[in-house]
Amino acid sequence: MLSVAVLALSGGASIGPAGFMDVLAKADRAWRLAAGQDWTPLFDITLVGLDSTPVRCRDGIVLQPHCPARDLASPQLVVVPAFDDEHLLDSLASNQDWASWLRKWHADGARVASSCIGAFLLAEAGLLDGRPATTHWMFADMLRSRYPAVKVSSDRLIVDAGDVITCGGATTFLSLVIYLVERFGGHERAALARKVLLIDGGRVSQLPYLAFTPVREHGDELVLAVQHYIDTHLASPIRSDLLARMFGVSPRTLARRFHAATNSSVTSYVQQARILLAKKLLETTDKPIEHIRAATGYLDPAAFRRAFRQAAGISPRQYRNTYAAGQLPTS
């Protein structure tokens, strides 16, 4: 059996550690359907605390660690769930003492896997320096800024760097469970667990969930005016040089001020705004995709499909089929 230590981090949602332990155990037991009497568990799971004190989660649930870190023999796999994302830096500081344990167990040969913003704790311990990693897409820029040595891939759902594995949002621990079952128990075992637990194993990207949020609290009135013009003229051709002339500045000045205010080029902003509008129209209307293509300023259907797939990871039709209103089953 593989010894697995799940960290009881303070301040997080109970679904992180408790959900992971429950689903991992159920995925393990699902193998009994195929193995019968020859079944042996793949994982030996322990909930570990910094000490033996009960750990209070932000939803009011209290977790009782099975043992404190000091009493645990070095595990083979360490799982770092998400902590409090509403107060990320404060929560990271309150869990700081875990960093030394992560370094020790990793040095002893443990593989370390994180879910969502658990990647910040791995980065704090130095385990992600020079490595590719992912986290929830909303916090990818913060991870990249705070730990510049980490090669952040915000579009990836799971990044396996060998002895360190990172995963996207908090509830993607379901995908992480299936990945770990396959990594340590093989494809057949993982496929059966996926079927028994009804876990979709096809997602490999966070791109469909990424939401473009324009930066507007920057105080540059010129850039705000340009943003407003872009947002209200997405169906029309938009060129940086013509925008500069329209607002009475040189193209170089517009490019410099726009990037300083939004951390984006004008061209990139226009494309992201167009894709955001396309997503909203696909989700909320039944307008033909060709109509949506024209409404978002794309003249070439192939260029629209290519740009949409690059931004969302799936085609416009697939996006509508998945996220449009009325896609939930009704009784």
UniProtKB/TrEMBL annotation:
InterPro entries, per the entry: Class_I_gatase-like (IPR029062), DJ-1/PfpI (IPR002818), Homeodomain-like_sf (IPR009057), HTH_AraC (IPR018060), INH-QAR (IPR052158)
GO molecular function per UniProt: DNA-binding transcription factor activity; sequence-specific DNA binding
One Pfam family matching this protein: DJ-1_PfpI
Keyword match Transcription: yes
Keywords: Transcription, Transcription regulation
Residue intervals of the HTH araC/xylS-type domain: 224-322
Alphabetical list of PANTHER family matching this protein: ARAC-FAMILY TRANSCRIPTIONAL REGULATOR, HTH-TYPE TRANSCRIPTIONAL REGULATOR RV1931C
Protein name per UniProt: Helix-turn-helix domain-containing protein
Source organism: Mycobacterium spongiae
